[in-house]
Each structure stands twice: as C-alpha cells, then as structure tokens.
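Team,

Forwarding the record for the chain on the shared tracking sheet. I've put the sequence and predicted structure together so nobody has to dig through attachments.
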Amino acid sequence: MPEVSPSKYLVTATWDDVPHLSEEEKRRLWDGIPPHQRKSRAKGIPQLGVGLIYPVDEESITVDDFEVPEFWPKAYALDVGWKVTAALWGAWDRQNDCVYVWSVYSQTEKEPATHVDAIKARGYWIPGVIDPAARGRSQKDGVALLNEYVGMGLDLDLADNTVESGLFAVYRRMVSGRLKIFKTCFPLFAELSRYHRNERGEVVKENDHLCDCLRYLVVSGMALAVTQIVAEQDDHRNIATQRRNRVTGY
C-alpha cells in the first residue's frame, strides 16, 4: 500500500473493480477523457481536473526505478519548514537533456539534524538548493537557514524562487519528455495530482512542498549538478562551509 506520509496511506479503486463496465465501454470512455483526467476517471486516483498546474498524464512522466549511472550529474532541492521539510533529488541525462527525479524526502516536525542525516544518506557530495524565503519568512531568514544547514555539512545555495517562469520550465520539460519521475516517488505524485490554482488563477499553497522542490530543482538545482568524481576532485565536502555562496555572494 503506497505510503503518502508516515501516518497516511492511499488506497484507490479502478474501473476494473466495477463489474458492469465492458471492455468496449471502457475503451469508449477512455477515448473521450482528456489525458490529464484519465488517472482520476479510470484508476480512481483523485486529482483536481480544473485548474491543474501540470495537466499531464502521470504515466507520461513515470518511469520504473533503475540504477542511476555514475556519470550522470546529481543535485537536490530543499524546502524547509517546521511542519514539513521536504527534498527531492534529480539526475541529469545530459545526452538526452532529461532530468530524472529518483528520490524524495518529506518529514514533519523534526530537527534540522534529522533532515541533514537523511540528505547526506543519499550522497554527502551532492549539491543542493534551498527555498530562499524559507516558507514565507524574509530573504534574510532564508539566508540564515542556508548558513545553518551549510554549517552542518551540506553544499547548498539559494534557489531561484521565481514562480510563474519556474512552473512553465517544469511543465515544458514534462510535455517534451525531458522530465521523468521514478515510480516509487509516491509523495510527489500525490502532490502533483492536487497541485492547482484557485478561481483567481493563484497557486494554492497547500501540501505543495515537493512541488516547490521540483521547481527549484529544474530552475536552479540542475545547473549545480555534479558527479561524485567531480565533486570529490573539487573537494566540495570540505569547502562547503568556506566558499562564498554562488547566489548571495557572501
């Protein structure tokens, strides 16, 4: 049963569980459903069909998990808050210019040290970007949080938090086949299915921590992506607390 969070699980029912629908009727219904609504209508996966920010078929961006090649550069994005702290990791297939989201992390009400341990477990050498506003705080507070996490050994910079152009950048990669997500990233898929705008066209800021991370990763994170060999040659691990921040300049 897919785990959405430590205390929540998602159970769905498909139209295959409905005995009165024939195969012919299913095909007819399927052909008449917009691609971004097919998961909801046919598979019982809830989503907001009106106002969806990424109206794409989930199957088109999903891939089976595989071992990421060592020569693919990696990076991650981090969204920090007391209620929820989330992160996701991407690997870049440079030959095809495709970003693969291969791991996600989401925890509630934990100390920074717990998050740092989880991040390092995915690869201590992987560089990342962090939300500059730190969940509604000021830019100054965002820099303070950056310094706190860097002080615990993470290689971090401030992410570009431009919203609309960032959303478009993610969507463009999705529809062009240049953004793929590992099948086991259940919490991210759960957020994407509900990530929507309100009646005024504004992004609804609820349960969107991983969606924000995805935007940070695409816009800022992958520009910093490195392989482990390059990271260790440049001694990223040791200079993370000494170098100037590439965004703030201090």
